[in-house]
């Protein structure tokens, strides 16, 4: 009887732990000190003492006075935006060299020739274990752009990224169009995502990627004051738009990967490499990443995370985390 009970208990525990995407309890409490999970921060979040302090720590005279864009039918309204692109709005014409003074350019390429900058957005996803196992088996590190709300929901999965040696960057709290938000909204999206990563993983990222690439000089200026470098991409697999979540067939996504593999073989990146947009949204996107990895590895000389491309050996504000330089990672010392 006792052993039967033990057996049932054991089975239950194994079931709970091995069943992906079943919420679990953790020591991390997000019920206060954070916006509501998966909601864009509101005035309730802006009116706290903590946020006011963060807000007052920003030198707003360095932040260009740019009106937020409107979101219409789920997309950004570009209709009244001047052709001269005064705000270096990436969404308009992929501008990445800021026009306002004092701003760092976005990182859009890996400077190393024949090199594939490996990045995955929107994690941590509760189904990512097989994918992270695959990366580990291949001794492959990547840059992970984590959504704060996902870190709050899946803290063990977030910690795994750090343990596995991946580079963690901020991908906002709730994945909005950043240029559509007020200054407070932009600041809160960045600040609380970074805080969640620090709380759960113990590190303070120094990089972020705007959801949809949607950044302009106002948003850049706020990110820069939080010591977050803006990282975009120059190749988009469009895996985010794959069925069933999106509208493209797996064949269309394969065609994109194939053309990027061709580029690795035909000299497109002879002088400098690429940063590729991929996602850990679901089994489909992660399976595509696994399927194409061997072909990418053989088409490109190196496949590395962004910190490695840039020789950033201390990718967090905490100085006791050291990552390999490009030559260390690739063994080309
Ligand atoms: C995708 O799902 C299949 C079937 O459940 C599983 O075998 C595979 O490991 C999953 N792939 C990833 C990357 O999670
Ligand atoms: C390299 O391959 C890409 C993708 O197939 C193609 O668009 C590009 O024109 C090719 N470049 C050269 C120099 O052949
Ligand atoms: C994580 O993966 C699950 C299963 O594929 C999916 O339903 C969910 O939308 C993903 N979560 C996020 C936040 O993208
Ligand atoms: C990284 O370091 C290597 C070796 O010192 C150097 O050749 C390369 O130019 C550096 N790359 C960047 C982006 O600083
Ligand atoms: C870095 O220091 C922090 C705080 O002392 C500690 O919790 C963490 O384990 C250290 N990490 C490494 C990789 O040394």
From TrEMBL:
BP terms from Gene Ontology: cell wall organization; chitin catabolic process; fungal-type cell wall biogenesis; polysaccharide catabolic process
Subcellular location, record wording: Cell membrane; Secreted, Cell wall
Names of required cofactors: Co(2+)
Entry EC no(s): 3.5.1.41
PROSITE patterns, alphabetized: NODB
Major location (coarse): membrane
Coiled-coil regions, chain positions: none
Keyword hit for Lipid biosynthesis: no
Bilayer topology term: Lipid-anchor; GPI-anchor
Catalyzed chemical reaction(s): [(1->4)-N-acetyl-beta-D-glucosaminyl](n) + n H2O = chitosan + n acetate
Superkingdom, taxonomy of origin: Eukaryota
Keyword Cytoplasm: no
CDD domains: CE4_MrCDA_like
Single Gene Ontology MF annotation: metal ion binding
InterPro entries the UniProt entry points to: Glyco_hydro/deAcase_b/a-brl, NODB_dom, Polysacc_deacetylase_ArnD
Record domain NodB homology: where: 114-309
GO CC term (a single one): plasma membrane
Keywords tagged on the record: Carbohydrate metabolism, Cell membrane, Cell wall, Cell wall biogenesis/degradation, Chitin degradation, Cobalt, Glycoprotein, GPI-anchor, Hydrolase, Lipoprotein, Membrane, Metal-binding, Polysaccharide degradation, Secreted, Signal
Protein family according to the UniProt entry: Belongs to the polysaccharide deacetylase family.
UniProt name for this protein: chitin deacetylase
Lineage, opening ranks: Eukaryota, Fungi, Fungi incertae sedis, Mucoromycota, Glomeromycotina
């Amino acid at each position: 009887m006792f052993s039967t009970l033990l057996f049932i208990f054991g089975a239950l525990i194994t079931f709970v732990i091995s069943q992906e995407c079943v919420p679990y309890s953790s020591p991390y409490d997000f019920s206060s000190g954070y916006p509501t999970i998966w909601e864009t921060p509101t005035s309730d979040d802006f009116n706290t003492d903590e946020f006011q302090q963060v807000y007052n720590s920003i030198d707003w005279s360095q932040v260009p006075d740019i009106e937020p864009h409107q979101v219409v039918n789920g997309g950004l309204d570009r209709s009244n935006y001047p052709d001269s692109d005064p705000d270096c709005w990436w969404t308009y014409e992929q501008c990445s060299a800021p026009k306002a003074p004092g701003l760092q350019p976005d990182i859009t390429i890996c400077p190393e020739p024949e090199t594939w900058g490996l990045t995955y957005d929107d994690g941590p996803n509760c189904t990512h274990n097989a994918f992270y196992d695959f990366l580990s088996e291949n001794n492959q590190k990547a840059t992970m752009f984590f959504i704060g709300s996902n870190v709050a929901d899946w803290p063990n999965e977030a910690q795994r990224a750090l343990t596995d040696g991946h580079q963690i960057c901020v991908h906002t709290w709730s994945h909005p169009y950043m240029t559509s938000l007020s200054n407070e909204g932009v600041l809160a999206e960045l600040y609380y995502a970074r805080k969640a990563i620090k709380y759960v993983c113990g590190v303070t990222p120094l990089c972020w990627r705007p959801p949809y690439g949607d950044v302009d000089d106002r948003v850049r200026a706020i990110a820069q004051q939080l010591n977050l470098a803006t990282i975009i991409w120059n190749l988009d697999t469009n895996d985010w738009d794959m069925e069933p979540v999106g509208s493209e067939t797996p064949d269309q996504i394969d065609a994109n990967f194939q053309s990027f593999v061709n580029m690795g073989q035909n000299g497109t990146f002879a002088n400098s490499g690429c940063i590729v947009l991929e996602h850990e949204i679901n089994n489909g996107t992660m399976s595509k990443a696994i399927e194409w990895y061997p072909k990418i590895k053989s088409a490109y000389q190196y496949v590395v995370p962004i910190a490695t491309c840039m020789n950033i050996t201390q990718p967090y504000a905490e100085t006791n985390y050291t990552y390999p330089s490009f030559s260390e990672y690739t063994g080309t010392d």
